[in-house]
Amino acid sequence: IHEIDVNRLIGDATLIEIMDETLITQEILKKYEIKGTIIMIKTKTEAHSEVFPESVPVLTEDAIQYLSSIGIKVFGIDVPSVDDIDSKTLDNHHAFNQYDIINIENLLLENVSEGYYNFIGLPLNIVGA
């Protein structure tokens, strides 16, 4: 984390809502007008921080590839993982890394509406994290 250029985490962002989907595909993402280099996906209307979810919506690899092709450099989502909760291989984490997209998990988006924003997502400066 301490080696990331902090400027990548600041910029124009698009927030979209994709509710009631277990897989988020390229076809679903193409329905939205995505502007900027940062995208956030809101998948729920209410956060329950005291309950760890049994499942989370995940992106397909073609969706991650699509985001890369349109210039996305940061991906944020309101669930605790970009992979299935029980994943042992963390394929999406690796795919985001392969496509040079920083992922941010567990965003609190329940009180934020779809739209375009100026985003600042500064990480904790933890050497070696």
Structure description:
- With 129 residues, the chain is an alpha/beta fold.
- It has three helices and seven strands, in the order ββαββαβαββ.
- Strands 6-5-3-1-7 form a five-stranded mixed sheet, with helices on one face. A two-stranded parallel sheet has the order 2-4.
- Strand 5, helix 3 and strand 6 (102-104) form a beta-alpha-beta unit.
- The longest helix is centred in the middle third of the chain and has 9 residues, at 61-69.
- The mean pLDDT is 93.
How would you characterize the largest beta sheet? 5 strands, mixed
Number of strands: 7
Helix content estimate: 10-25%
Which structural class do the helices and strands define?
alpha/beta
Percent range for β-strand residues: 15-25%
Q: Give helix and strand order, one letter per element, not per position.
A: EEHEEHEHEE
Give the count of helical stretches: 3
Q: Going across the major beta sheet, what is the strand order?
A: 6-5-3-1-7
Instruction: Give the overall shape, derived from the CA principal axes.
Output: globular
Distance between the termini: 6 Å
Can you tell me the residue ranges where pLDDT is under 50 for at least 5 consecutive residues?
none
Mean pLDDT: 93
Rg computed from alpha carbons, rounded to a whole number of angstroms: 14 Å
